[in-house]
Amino acid sequence: EVRLVESGGGSVQSGGSLRLSCQASGYTASRYCMAWFRQVPGKESEFVSSFDTDGTTIYGDSVKGRFTVSIDNAENTLYLQMNSLKPEDSAMYYCQLGFSCDYYFERGQGTQVSVSS
């Protein structure tokens, strides 16, 4: 059974930093894509960042230059380092796993990020 567990969310002031983690289990293929999305109630899910096993990393325009995605293959964990946080970054952050960055088949339960001004 594939499982994704996010952690690291919390409440910070504007300008602060957080590091989110997403630990994956139950998936052993060497080819995959993992990504972070975020969602605010009443709004559509927003792409944040993705990491592909081909080495490609992609960022949404709103987080470029502030967020950094990385992966620890030994720990099967995806990270999202978030710096210079803004109130508009407040959302539930979800980790997703896919066969490729065009097709995700699993999502974690999410971790809440709240940024106050």
Summarize the topology:
Layout: E1 3-7, E2 10-13, E3 18-25, E4 33-39, E5 46-52, E6 57-59, E7 67-72, E8 77-82, E9 91-100, E10 103-107, E11 111-116
Parallel strand pairs: 2-11
Antiparallel strand pairs: 1-3, 3-8, 4-5, 4-9, 5-6, 7-8, 9-10, 9-11
Describe this structure in words.
The chain contains no helices and eleven strands. With about 120 residues, the protein is an all-beta fold. Strands 2, 4, 5, 6, 9, 10 and 11 form a seven-stranded mixed beta sheet that branches. A hairpin with a 4-residue loop joins strand 5 and strand 6 (about 55-60). The N and C termini lie far apart (about 40 Å).
Order of helices and strands: EEEEEEEEEEE
Low-confidence segments, ≥5 residues, pLDDT <50? Answer: none
β-strand number: 11
Bulk shape: globular
Radius of gyration: 13 Å
The largest sheet, given as strand count, sense and whether it forms a barrel, is: 7 strands, mixed
Fraction in beta strands:
over 45%
Mean of all residue-level pLDDT scores: 96
* Structure classification: mainly beta
What is the helix content? under 10%
